Amino acid sequence: MVNIKINGIDCQAPEGSTILEACRLAGIRIPTLCYLKEINAIGACRICVVEVKGARSLVAACVYPINEGMEIFTATPKVIESRKTTLELLLSNHNKSCLSCVRSGNCELQTLCEEYGVDATRFNGEMTRSDIDCSAAHMYRDNSKCISCRRCVAACAKTQGIGVIGANERGFATEITCAFDMALADTACVSCGQCITACPVGALSEKDDTQKVLDAIADPEKYVVVQAAPAVRASLGEAFGYPVGTNVEGKMVAALRRLGFDKVFDTNFSADLTIMEEANEFIGRVQNGGVLPMITSCSPGWIRYCENYFPDFIPNLSSCKSPQQMFGAVTKTYFAEKNGIDPKNIVSVSVMPCTAKKFELGRDDQAAAGVPDVDISITTRELARLIKKAGIMFNQLPDEKCDSPLGTGTGAAVIFGATGGVMEAALRTAVWTLEGKKDGTPIEFTEVRGVEGIKEATYNVAGMEVKVAIASGLANAKALLKKVQAGEANYHFIEIMGCPGGCVNGGGQIIQPAEVRNFTDIRADRAKVLYSIDEANTLRFSHENPDVKALYDEFLGEPNSHKAHEILHTSYKAQKLSK
Amino acid sequence: MAFKKCAVPFAGTAEQEAQLKAVIADHKDDRGALMPVLQKAQEIYGYLPIEVQTMIAEGMDIPLEKVYGVVTFYAQFSLNPKGKYRISVCLGTACYVKGSGDIFNKFSEILGIKGGEITPDGKFSLDACRCIGACGLAPVLTVNEDVYGNLTVDDVEKILAKYE
To answer: What is the residue range of A300's domain?
Structure first.
């Protein structure tokens, strides 16, 4: 431990801590804008400055390490004045249409401006000219609100290993854009949305599709069906004042019902269905000498990344559609047929922790009934917006259950939302299928759990050694695939999720400010919700889902049947990196 | 979004490409290799269009955006080749106070290009320069080796007409 003095009071902090971390331990909060733990540490925005005795000038607390005997002053008039001026300078080049900004009330800049009592018009003058980029299916960029903190740039380049956005030009003309001012849709962007959740202000946001949902619900001709992904229930509550890591499954279902959807179903159903198809596809590949390692295909950000950057691995991808798409496909075939509804009159809506799902629903080969499997995909944030706009008092809602028959999910399904969850769910069913049910059939495969970027495990299944690997975050996926390409590692089965930590930390989840993300691991907190739902479930194997069984008995036949292939599987193709 | 593709078609030769590849190979394992590679690439091609930047990005296994960010940061790099007639308007202090800014803008308006760009026919390129040591003639501009001084905005069309 290192002995330091903060505002005249003796304290201690671990060696290697930054001033920011040491102060936090001592109960002092220092504001940040450009700093985001594990993502961006460039000490550029100067909002975190503090005085250090003996230092020539104010220092950036986010990157400045403590040392023995250091004396730090965090709130002197000099510090406060400096932070205030920094904010006023930021506002001088900021589009201050805050009243209806998508981030109003959840904007890190707004919060600080209020705290420091800034004069928003102190420096009026020319503003950097910028265009709005709404070319991509999933997001909206309005650089007139950008504060050039570069958190998005780091999320794209470092966390995801992609780097399609960056700071271009110089000085006052500097803008975060794509090379040659290309539209985002024309780049190798994979629509993961990690840039959006990193953005402290309203410069980046999901494309808002809530009006489409309201229009569909208001149309008496339309039968509007909604599914909600596992990870949504682990984050939605954050928009209504619940702490990170609160399970709001029952209230979420109640809210969806009150919004007026004709049926409230659960993506957990199709997650179980995915396991039926995927586990059997895996067993088939192993037994018939198919392409291995097989790689999961649930994450559309990962799929796009594979098509863009690792086309050689396309044959390794499971041909299973993602749970979102399987759900839509079953809704518009099986459910439509069973209920005598014309699939053309069904509007299939999904609520996802993900922005790439907006892109995925428009992919080729995703229309089992001749109409798109899924019509509208909204993020967790958009659902929160819908609930607020409808005046639904979320906190007072009762806990309700999903409708039948596409509303049942097992514990294996709900853990899809955390990195390693799909692997664990597949292993449960694969082991059971190969070894048969007996006492001691494993349910929990804890080796594949946790937020580490790359995990490996080996299991003995029916006398065969099965080597598995899990990667989340595309920079980790890249590192893992390079090892496989170089022959340094080989596996039978790999799970890859585009976002670090999996869907719980997806680009469509409720945005937590840096102040939270710098000191707690929201990935782990939200994942805990899913594992506790799994543990509490009486059904923990996907093949035990009674509604999934009925679907096979009444309609599909058996997993990987011809009909199942037509409805539940898809194809991929290599993409050119950029125009 | 206005995609900033160079107005003049790329006409790089196989020989130039081989030279560039050799430069990249020479620097591949160096830290901070991007600057010297970009400088050599500009020597080879005279400018750094998307085709050249893409070769550099692929050769060095870095995102195109990273290359572009560096190219647009430094004034020494150009995204466009120079025209057959290189118009260079002095925006140094003496010329500027005598109205060279308006003259520059007039060229920009007539040619439909901004500073650093080239007309699609490859005929004219427009640049701003700093003092060329002829302040007595301010405002001053050059077209290739020809020097024009004591100008007003009305002279712009006459100067261009000489090169039609």
So the answer is: 211-568
